[in-house]
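A.,

Following up on our hallway conversation. Structure tokens first:
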């Protein structure tokens, strides 16, 4: 009995599906997603914007990465960072309900990732974000806005 291969496309990934005739057994092999170009540079730019409290610009930098990411961990990281940047933008605009919604979404996405992901110390970041969860007016106690600790040297650039 032979194998019959069928190729299907699911959300921009190609999968090879092999069926063993007569047994009904199948398996899938997926191609690795392509690496994100200039990831280190682009992630560094977003972190720099965020740490300087340019939240709108950080959002835009990370949103591009989020849209390009094909691997679940990367997508969740970039989406969570977009949520946090949006949340702190709302904080600056005194839109506290919008801030809470976005910070909670971001926290939920980032909490499921490793404590250090793509060189970003998420555990540290989430601890700082917690100081802003639940507030409904500007903080009176001068708690600084979160700063991201980032280790860009941990990101490997793809070989060319």
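Then the amino acids I'd put at each of the 160 positions:
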């Amino acid at each position: 009995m032979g194998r019959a291969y069928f190729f299907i496309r699911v959300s921009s990934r190609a999968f090879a599906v092999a069926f063993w005739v007569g047994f009904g057994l199948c398996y899938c092999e997926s191609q690795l997603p392509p690496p994100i170009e200039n990831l280190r540079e682009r992630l560094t730019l977003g972190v720099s914007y965020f740490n300087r409290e340019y939240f709108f610009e950080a959002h835009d930098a990370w949103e591009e990465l989020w849209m390009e990411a094909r691997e679940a961990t990367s997508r969740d990281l970039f989406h969570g960072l977009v949520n946090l940047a949006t949340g702190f933008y709302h904080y600056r605009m005194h839109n506290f309900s919008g801030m809470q919604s976005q910070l909670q979404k971001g926290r939920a996405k980032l909490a499921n990732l490793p404590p250090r992901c793509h060189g970003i110390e998420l555990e540290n970041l989430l601890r700082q974000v917690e100081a802003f969860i639940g507030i409904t007016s500007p903080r009176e106690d001068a708690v600084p806005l979160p700063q991201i600790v980032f280790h860009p040297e941990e990101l490997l650039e793809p070989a060319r």
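The mean pLDDT is 81. Curious whether your intuition agrees with the design.

B.
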